Amino acid sequence: MAFYTEVSEQDLKAFLAQFDVGAYQSHVGIRKGVSNTNYDLHTDDGHYVLTLFEPNRVHIEDVPFFMAYADALQKGGVSSPKIMMDKQGHFVRELCGRPACIVSYLLGKDVDKADITPDNCRKVGATLAKMHKIGADFEHLKVNRYSLEKWNGWFSRYKDTLNKAKNGLGLTIYMLLTELNNSWPKDLPRGAIHGDFFPDNVFFRNFEISGVIDFHFACTDLFIFDLAIAVNAWCFDRDIKFVNERFHALVQGYQSVRPLTPAETKVLPLMLKAAALRFLLSRIEEYANNKENAAVTPHDPRSFIKRLEFFTNEH
């Protein structure tokens, strides 16, 4: 989540008149995250989250996919925000020149990265596998705009700055991209994936997962790549040291719901490096494009340099 576009009380009241969600009480910007504008919204009917999809972060034509995916997860038994329809049966309306939607507020909170346990990871793995089983039957298709083609473009644009971040990093990434360009797996299980399954997008309540949020990276891609993203996100401690107990718990939890195929197991080491590379390059772009006094603080790419180094040395 993030906060870019200012929404006045007057504009929001007019927007809310199109929905049956109660009368306006208050709204406060949510500054956590980097993608879209989000507000904590209170009405006399309840607590909601208002999202405005930012054109510089999201392709507007992709918004229906995000909405349909969230709806499919909820209907499939994975708790996710309920998207509120307007009085004409639409999920998305325009607000301040942005496509916008209102979703229910999920109870629970994300786990602090320092407090993640193997039990958390086991439940995360099982939930992700359940999402993939739903995603396998999801009829909508959307290209992954943050896959290999995008990584090649990022590398070309920022390769001169990579060695400033870490000596030899440019060569490491060049060699990995060459490997990925030549051997990206194709004939593996695929479907709708979350694409950003990080701790801040998974809520826990009473030690159980209470909901999954933020679908702006959802797309159609390999399930094993989505699993690799989750490993990168959940299996390193606050000092960016790999925690084997978390890894084994996450994979065991996943396979308790959806067993990996032998081909997926074989390619997992490569996908772990690919997922580390994807988020390293996107964070480098965030820093390169960050403006002074911006409303959003960019993610530090150094944590993913360490992840990439770990997976490169291990595999």
Q: Main sheet: which strands, in order across?
A: 1-2-3-5-4
Element order: H for helix, E for strand: HEEEHEEHHHEEEEHHHH
Number of helices: 9
Q: Strand fraction band?
A: 15-25%
Helix content: 40-55%
Shape: globular
Q: Flag low-confidence runs.
A: none
Report on this structure.
Helices cover 44% and strands 15% of the residues. The protein has 315 residues and is of the alpha+beta class. The strands form three sheets. It has a five-stranded antiparallel β-sheet, covered by helices on one side. Helix 4 runs antiparallel to helix 5, helix 4 crosses helix 8 and helix 6 crosses helix 8. It is globular. The two termini are 33 Å apart. The relative contact order is 0.14.
Short overview:
By secondary structure, the protein is of the alpha+beta class. The protein has helices at residues 9-16, 63-75, 118-136, 148-165, 169-183, 223-234, 244-257, 262-289, 302-314, and strands at 24-30, 37-43, 46-52, 93-95, 98-104, 190-193, 202-205, 208-212, 219-222. The protein contains 9 helices and 9 strands.
Present the secondary structure layout.
Blueprint: H1 9-16, E1 24-30, E2 37-43, E3 46-52, H2 63-75, E4 93-95, E5 98-104, H3 118-136, H4 148-165, H5 169-183, E6 190-193, E7 202-205, E8 208-212, E9 219-222, H6 223-234, H7 244-257, H8 262-289, H9 302-314
Antiparallel strand pairs: 1-2, 2-3, 3-5, 4-5, 6-9, 7-8
Helix pairs in contact: 3-6, 3-7, 4-5, 4-8, 6-8, 8-9
